[in-house]
Design brief:
The chain is mainly alpha-helical. The chain has one domain: Jann2411-like domain (Jann2411-like fold, Orthogonal Bundle), CATH 1.10.3300.10. Helix content is about 50%, strand content about 10%. The chain contains 6 helices and 4 strands; from the N terminus they run ααααββαββα. The strands form 2 sheets. It has a two-stranded antiparallel ribbon with strand order 1-2. Strands 3-4 form a two-stranded antiparallel ribbon. α3 packs antiparallel against α4 and α3 packs parallel to α5. The radius of gyration is 19 Å and the shape is elongated. The N and C termini lie far apart (about 50 Å).
């Protein structure tokens, strides 16, 4: 594990959130989809379950997507993360839950709006990545027909493809077929 458990989990949650409008159209189209996303990552605390909340999470998604677009420009990415920390009024405190017994940080009250709690925790995970000098782990899928984001948590930073569209397998199959075709041409 490169980062703490909660940081890695939050980085994965960010990728899934950002990718909800990058692959196969809008996947965060209604409150049920938002609930499913939140439940899949164990988000706790206040949920208003209204259109305002859904729109605010979509705006957060856009802000997070911009950070991936700026990953090659450390100063610009830092400015975006700092702005998100400021806008969410992040106030760190240690906690643990029965489902996550390790100590971890929460950065907003369970009573704060959902986008604010999510944004604070997501900004802090990105800050951990930046502090470790690992901003280059934020990548966009290398498949030519995909714009999904990924966080490369591999030991040697070699991951190139997202998990959303089977991109890695598709690219490997295409390369294999190209090699086979070339071998057939060479034999002829």
């Amino acid at each position: 594990m490169l980062f703490t458990h909660d940081t890695e989990l939050t980085l994965k949650a960010i990728c899934v959130l950002v990718n909800t409008d990058r692959v196969d159209g809008e996947q965060l189209g209604d409150l049920a989809a938002l609930d499913a996303y939140l439940d899949s990552f164990g988000w706790t605390g206040r949920r208003d379950r209204d259109e305002t909340e859904l729109k605010s999470v979509r705006r957060l998604r856009e802000r997070l997507g911009k950070i991936w677009a700026l990953a090659d420009d450390e100063e610009a990415a830092v400015a975006q993360v700092n702005a998100l920390l400021s806008d969410t009024h992040a106030q760190p405190w240690l906690t643990r839950h029965p489902e996550m017994p390790e100590w971890h940080l929460h950065l907003a009250s369970v009573h704060d709006p959902l986008w604010q709690r999510m944004g604070a925790e997501m900004a802090m995970a990105l800050a951990d990545l930046i502090r470790a000098g690992e901003l280059r782990r934020l990548k966009i899928c290398a498949a030519p027909d995909c714009e999904a984001v990924l966080t490369d948590l591999s030991r040697n930073r070699s991951r190139m493809f997202c998990d959303t569209g089977n991109c890695g397998n598709r690219q490997h199959v295409a390369a294999y077929r190209e090699r086979r075709a070339k071998e057939s041409d060479d034999v002829s």
